[in-house]
Fold these 2 entries.
Entry 1:
Amino acid sequence: MSSSHASKPDLSDSNVRLGTAGEKIQQAAAIVGICGLLASAVIGFTGMFGTTHDFFVKSWLQNYMFVLSISLGALFFVFIQFLARAGWSATVRRVAELLAGNLQWAWLGLVPLVVLWLSGGSHDAAASHAFDAPDMAQVSYSSEPAATLGAGGGGGDGHGDGHGGGHGHGHAGWGPGIVFPWADMEAMKSHNPAEYDLVSGKVAYLNSTFFWIRNLIYVVFWAFAGRWYLKRSTAQDESGEVGLTSTMQKWSGPMAIGFGLTITFAAFDWIMSLSPGWFSTMFGVYFFCGCCTTGFSMIILATQRLQSFGRLQGLVNAEHYQDLGKLLFAFGMIFWAYIGFSQYMLIWYANIPEETGWFLARQIGGWGTISFLLLFGHFVIPFVAIISKWVKRMRWALMVAAIWMLAFAWLDLFWLVMPVIPMDIMTAETYMEVVEAHVNDTTGITNPLNFTMLAGVGGLYIWMTMRRFRNHRLLAIRDPRLSESLAFENQ
Amino acid sequence: MTSTQTTIPTQAPGGAPGIDTGDPDLRPAYGLIAEFESPGEVLKAAEEVRKAGYRWWDCCTPFPVHGLDGAMGIKPTILPIMVFFAGMTGTIAAFILQAFTNASSLSIWALVWVTGYPYLISGKPMISMPAFIPVMFEVTILFSALTTVFGMFTMNGLPRLHHPLFNSDRFRKVTDDRFFVVIEARDPKYFRSRTEAFLESLGATAVEEVRDDDMTEEMD
């Protein structure tokens, strides 16, 4: 109604197509990506900066999960709009569809893991040498450590864990067992019987064959879902057929079910199974929050950047940014904190050794600092910063928030993937003893590999995204709800 | 907003106290209502009324009209700020409540003497933030929600059982298909004839004076 919407929207190609504008960024991203990957490979294979093999593989996994979560968050955004028959989002949905379209290449991230699986199936002696086996021989899960720990540990913030990290730093060999301990049960049995006791009950699920069958299902489903929406939406640009919207609405329910199941199990398989003795039924939801954080941040950021290129002028306004900001606020900050805390509190309160070890590993040494950084950086500070409607309506402020949240989502994945449950917690008398023994543990956050890998994977992702942005319209120009979206106002 | 439901219009302009209560002309004027037929017209009229410098006036529409707040020049509500600080108060209050009752042996006088009782639960520290957070969260929500509802009520002058505008039969179409601009008599710029002419000049389909009590029903 207000005057800003009175003029006719500019749907010409000069406003809704990127054309050659993004070419330089695309090329630069490709160069940065390739250089980053090459540098990472050099660091990883030569062991520069004390980089171990498992750190190298986990760094790949973490950065792959980071860009994957952007596209998964975007996919969630797309189908949730159809599920709710949302009108407001028609002007920004295409950006999300394009980001979700990248899922077509999600399988690429698994290639290094395939190589890892092929590289060493044997229970390599090198791995066994890396551990002080005699120490661990005393450890038995059934001789419950809680008695000794409980007596001394008035602090009680996490008792010893039933399973030591069988996958400590310092692996010399290759093979899936260096990051996924369950993939090499023989090695685990020899150097960490306590963890073996726990994990041997899970081999029906945690075995290489089933793992790769599941991986195949994930990447096929995601590629299909991402492509499916983009294809129908772009077909509607040409034909203007309203029936396509109905089709996309009709299938958004099954999509939601498939999405929920695949990301839950992917989070179990790719992150939770790094510490196979540990389990949390909430873990999939926690990863889902991470997907929303990165996905919504990237939608905000991409839309903002496109507008600064002079595209989508007069099509995306403060109303849409405010709503995107609300989604980021709700899912990226509040829901993330809610799920993260719920997961923590249940484990903290129950105080069962096989559960608390996972958090203990994230409280000792430098990890404690990162945990607090996450609490404040992922929740408290941005929560207060963008709680106000006026901040969400300021483009630059929302853009800063989006970049900030992407950075902390990356750190969140680092915090999820990298820590290793210490081996000595079984022999420690008290909680504080473990804390003091590991007070100088480093997190590896300053290792340049983190940044070269981010540049590599992120660069390729941006290259892929820019290519897609340049090949398609940036707006669903014939969406039946476009006029509703253009006239949309928050009241 | 300040009207009272009296059956004796003691403050009727020009009327002496104790005069016949049945004379409708002696009821004080509440204001003028101007009827419009479309959201666009009422938006335009609202702009003009604001520019004319009226302060005690309002628009009544059957549904939310986008842009009306801007046209009327309504300032953003301070309710969110109140809610934010109420929420913070809730967080802090819940923390103090738990820390005092479960983790201290202090005695304070709160109507009666209340003593804290340090209670060790499963070896956790006395002040266990993870255990406190659910309560802090809930009290934050409680304080925020109550402040939102009752703050809104207070600032809107709700609840009230009657409003002078309900005296007008014409005004009943506000819940159907008519849009109204209401200028109250207490506005410093309000002059019956001049304001009426002004409203008519805005393209109102009808302008009507509304009286400030509810005697109409009884008189019929």
Note: Residues 1-5, 122-170 of chain A have pLDDT under 50 and may be disordered.
Entry 2:
Amino acid sequence: MPDIQNYTLNFGPQHPAAHGVLRMVLELDGEVVMRADPHIGLLHRATEKLAETKTWVQSVPYMDRLDYMSMMCNEHAYCMAIERLLAIEVPIRAQYIRVMFDEVTRILNHLLWIGAHGLDVGAMTMVLYAFREREDLVDCYEAVSGARMHAAYYRPGGVYRDLPDSMPQYRESKWKSATEVKKINEVRSGSLLDFLGDFVSRFPKILDEYETLLTDNRIWKQRLVDVGIVSPERAMQLGFTGPMLRGSGIAWDLRKKQSYEVYDRLDFDIPVGVTGDCYDRYLVRVEEMRQSNRIIKQCIDWLRVNPGPVITDNYKVASPPRANMKSNMEELIHHFKLCTEGIHVPEGQVYSAVEHPKGEFGIYAISDGANKPYRLKIRSPGYVHLSAMNELTRGHMIADVVTMVGTIDIVFGEIDR
Amino acid sequence: MMVDVMQQLLPGFLIPYFNGLMQLGQDTFGSAWANILTLVWTVIKVMLIIAPLLLIVAYVTFWERKIIGWMQVRIGPNRVGPWGLIQPIADGLKLMLKEVVIPSGADRSVFLLAPVFAFAPALAAWAVIPFNATLVLANVNASLLYVMAMTSIGVYGIMLAGWASNSKYAFLGGMRSAAQLISYEVAMGLALVVVLMVSNSLNLGEIVKGQGQGRFAEMGLGFLSWNWLSLLPMFVVYLVSCVAETNRAPFDMAEGESEIVGFHVDYSGMAFAVFSLAEYSAMILCSTLTSLLFLGGWLSPVGFLPDSIFWLFAKISAIIFFFFWIRATFPRYRYDQIMRLGWKVFIPVCLIWVVVVGFWMMSPWNIWK
């Protein structure tokens, strides 16, 4: 009698639930997964190496393209690393703006996650609801940076420019009548802060709607509860961070534990799970969206009443104001030096990490004093989480593999870098 | 039969020609002519059912996209023709013009036969479906059994497709659906046992007529005398089993587009289209059966409105809408959970209810006399 062999299934990279280019070789016993072997590298773009050949500021847009679902958070870690090497202070208003947009980004990321996770588990309506809300937030991105995804808004020393006083408006067209345009432009009549304020006041209700669709749904619970349990000890051993770690019950959040920018002045809670299964991670992320909403609200209130500079006045780091540049030799030279050589970062090394929507996103940079990094290492949370795939899926069924891909919140841009 | 109908329907000036044709046939074929006429007449009746059915199937897909679109704050198809109404025709045309790719490792004949196996039974079952008290292609006494037999064959199409594709994903899909259909067939069959116990017949027409009798029907509240109320647990089991039988969400793990992509992952063009035609005609068939068995078929819900085929269509539409609705709302079950629901919940409930109804019928409170 021939040996009975396990069934080997190549899952991805062309698979609707592979979230990009995930390729896994699954060893199956019937429908039960015996071993999952994730293969990476299909989206490798050598970001770290490329950064060595670009000036410090030129690499900011590369950061957007790492985790292309939480763009500004990636920039944040990178800019923070440079600022630490330079030992410069970021203006307080810029810090608030950064925190606000970090949280906007967190909501953006989690909205995409809840949609994709829902779609993987079969609740296909979620993704469309989530994208309806994302639309408003990418509008905010567009208003500050001109781009809806890859913003390149944070700069070493602050942010590119202050928040705009007006929002982009819809225009009348063949598809949108005047009355319709007037209606959707109503919330866009004020400043960015007004628009975001309106969103923030609506958002908790929308989250309640999502939760009525999923949280107590029997099928949703059957699919998520007790699936992919990670014990707190094991989660730490595996190097989990972010919602993956908090889902296992460990209240580790860099915003609280290693507070950066102005997080220590803001009031928010860290949700933690109990059992460490997919359902807990789902609840943690939904609650995180509510907390982000709270933070944004506080930032809006502060930003409304506290005008000020949004980028450092150290002209060795950031360009001087254009008006001065036109009339002043000193400023002109600064501008010329910045545009031709870029920033010179003093010799040294630094690790700076932010609480990214997916976990701890860190930048380790070594500078040899030149205008380019000597070495840049990116610590991406998704890479670490993906390495636990085998452990998470072993003994579960194929359908659960898809749930697990969803619960890890895989975005290949940051895994392959 | 055919001669009478034709003489009524044809315009006056054609009748002499028609009679001449009949005479010619009689002269040529002699006594066999009557049999030939019956055959031709049956084929015409079959066409009269299948042609509208296929059209309805096309527009059910359209309405599914439209309704789910509205539920998902989208517009749905609206480009082809006014309000997108030509969309299904355009889809059909596109699928017909596409190449049917046959994978090199596939078993060619079985690969091409599988869609037929899926589609043919879903159409054949319509033969015994009554549309009103008189309108039925074949008024068979065991029509319920016939329908059960026919719908069970449908699973072969899916299994063979999964097998013949020679693809691991398709194979998993085929295996899943075989297991699923067998489990839910049992629950469905037991639910039907209860129905035929109370209506004392296997004839679908008789079953519908039986629902129009009773105290509530006399009071003019016909909808309360239908089987759905007196056999409520069976109605629920049957309806859910229907969703599972037709591989619709949330039981669509044979297709499971985000897990294994489906048993028809290697099919393209018309071969693929036939599978989706089969799925939708099976869905309409299941809705029709539910309306006939539990919702009083063509019977009017209230006394002051006449019974008509319109009621049947309204009930079928409502059930199809229910199918769409749950598809837009629910996540998908996992394979083992579907099995558990079928074997550990539905079948015990059915078995218990068979006994309960048995005692009920023997007791003095029997309401089905």
Note: The mean pLDDT of chain A is 88.
